[in-house]
Amino acid sequence: MTGGWVRNGIAVDGAEPTEPAVVWWLQAPSKHADLRLPHDGTDGLMCFAGTTTWREPSLTWVPELQLEASAFEDTGICTWDGADLLEAGSFAEGSRTVSYVERWQRLPGSGGEQLALSTEGGRLVRTGDYALTVLDTRASGGDFVCVAWVLRESGWVVDHCWPPGAQAPPPPTHVEQEPIVTLADGRTWTVEEHRKAVSSRG
Questions:
Q1: Is the pTM for the entire model greater than 0.85?
Q2: 12 and 96 housed in the same domain
Q3: What's the structural domain count of the chain?
C-alpha cells in the first residue's frame, strides 16, 4: 500500500459518498504524510505526518506532527475494490460512534522513488512524483505549514499548500547512501527511509 493516494469520496454514517476536499496521503514503507485541504473554508482541514503500521486487515497511522490533536486512534480496515483501496473505520462524535468509508485511488506517477526525512518539527515524505513537507514551528512562535509538491520537468513545483503561500523546502534532487541531507531551508534532515522502487501493492 506504499505510494501516493488521492481520496475520491468519503461516506460518513451511512450517507452517500462526497468529496469535500483535496486529500493526499503519501505512504513510504513505514512513514506517511497526509494533507486534507477543503474546497471551501477550513472545516475539515487536517494535516499530519508520522508512522504507519499494518496488522491485517488494518492500517494504523500514528502522528508525530499534526495540525490538530486527534482524540481517537486512526485505524482503518483496508480492502480492495479493483485498483481502489477502501478504508473503513469509525470515530467518536460526542456520545456517538460514527462510521466512515473512504475510497483511495493511486496518484499517477507515485510508484517511483520513496523517501522519508525528518528534522526537529519537520517531516517530508516523497512517493515518486509527489511529496509533502510538513513543518511545525509553533513551539518557537512560528506556524504549522504543509506544502504539496509535484515533480515536473523543471523541478519540484507547489501543487497546493496550507496556509496559502506557505513556505517549506522541497525534496532533495538526489539522495544516495548519506544518512543526512541539507534542504533548501538550510537545516539538516535525517534520512529515515529511502527506497528506489516500489511494487504496485505493498
A1: yes
A2: yes
A3: 2
